[in-house]
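Fold Annotation — chain and its backbone
Next Lines — sequence and tokenised fold

***
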Amino acid sequence: MKVLIVTGGIGSGKSLVSRILTECYDIPVYEADNRAKALYIELPVMLDEIESALGVVLRNDSGMFVPQKLAEVIFTDSDALKKVEDILFPHLQKDFLNWAEEQGKEVVALESATLLEKPQFDDFGDIVLVVDAPKSLRLSRACSRDGQEEGKILQRMSAQPLMNSISDGGCNERVDYVIVNDSTIEDLHQKLTEFIEKYGLTKKL
């Protein structure tokens, strides 16, 4: 089984690429960012460990996980963020591997906005695909999609220095292929087809 990593900066179109992979190439995609949020609820023992490491309570009076409480702690505290990730990521990797085995496919994909920024995933995956677009276009897309002001989007983008570097023409040894999503949906389909054919991943449905 090959594991394809799909990543990219905010507004790059990586979720669209993931949808095309599933709909047109029958490649199932594990959405790591969404699954990470779910694990806080599904794995209370993990949440216990995180609360202990941070020294804070992340649940309400009913015992339900409150994401905003966690966000308030880790948003400006890099040490707290690392503590959370050191606990979360092993569970996330195990969850992905269990999911991947259940798919019964020769190729599966993992979509994550931040995976390449995290050293815990340095050797994870067989092929790394970065979906990119010019910063100004990514900003415009994200503002339109999320209904947020440019300042808030730029703040989120600043947390992805590697993706921003790639947008500026930088290189990273872990990246195998870059698709620049700066035109039409037809153009994106063509670029994705070229990528799929280059690595012999699967045939179009």
